[in-house]
Amino acid sequence: MGRLNILMRKKWLCVLVGAVFVLGLILIGGFLFATQILSVESNPGKADVLVVLGGGAKERAARAADLFNEGAAERIIVSGIGDTEENRDVLVSKGVPVSAIELETKSKSTKENAEYSVPLLRRLGARRVIVVTSWYHSRRALHCFQRYAPEMEFISLPTKRDLPKSRWPNKSVRSHILLEYVKLLYYWMRYGIEPV
Known about the structure:
The N and C termini lie far apart (about 50 Å). By secondary structure, the protein is of the alpha/beta class. The protein has seven helices and five strands; from the N terminus they run ααβαβαβαβαβα.
């Protein structure tokens, strides 16, 4: 009986060590290939409206301003509670006229960015929309917008300045990446927004 218990413990220990090893490999792969997994960049093209999502360290608004100044769209919606005015100021400082900017100031999440921006997009008659957010956030953001307005074409043109400088991202970027994997899974399980 004692020998059987020892064999069972060894078996479960081997299973546990194997599971930890596989989980470690998945985690390392998730960091090494984060840009390929999390970042979605569509072919650029002319759109009716740009939607820039709140968050980031002003790089999202700067990217939207660059796209606007290149003629990608004639209108910009700044979406998200907390930093909408700051993002509007970045846009204006980079040459975007105040008259071209509309603020959506209620959303507190990516899902709400889409939910609350879509009625504004419909009011503007938008058919093609460029979504601007951080590279690691672009997959989830794109799928949220597609979910809430399947009749529109969404183009993902995420930030580039904040891409990792090497294959192994620094500690700060790793925390964003890890959190984004958790959020992708949560959005899939909670809202049915598939990450593919």
